[in-house]
Design a protein that fits this description.
Length: about 210
Amino acid sequence: MSADRASEDLTARARIRDAALRLFTERGIDGASIRDIAAAAGVSSGLIRHHFGSKEALRDACDAYATAEMNRLREQLFSGGGLTDTAGMVALHPTMRALQGYLVRSMVDGSDAAGALFDDAVRLSEDWLTRDKVETRDLRAYAAVLVAMQLGVFLMKDQMSRALGVDLDTPAGHVRLNRGFVDAFSHVLLTPEQAAQLHTAMDRMDDGGQR
């Protein structure tokens, strides 16, 4: 195969993937046909089957790409002073919002791959919490709750949009949502004494009230 032909194949594969990411997000995997994706990508249905084999394999490829890209972008933001680079954050925002929307829809649709995405996100959160030396009684529970909180707001997109008075799919809605996350994550809601009391109560519940 010539270098030009190889480059064309790579470009077509990327166009197909990007079209599938967009349509799977909008319609779900059942609502987006191979024909729809081919039309959006400007290719034939046969070329999609050539590159990916089936719609399910294409969805798996989208899952893998979106997860890897989201992890890369998060690492870029949270390490090396990325959070202080305002211009960089603004530039990354549309891409991260699109990837996040896809990943949430993929999990809602459900599949082994989607379940693995959640597990990977929990493991990544555990790594961050460990690296930042966050004190916790149950690292896995802490990480899982954080991931579920971040994804849960998108599962309740309509309710959140109504409560905020702005569409969560718009840049303004996403910015307002993330302001809420920043404030929620940066403020301590319980005193150490209250936290200790609640943990003691849960220890008793765990022991069937024996303590």
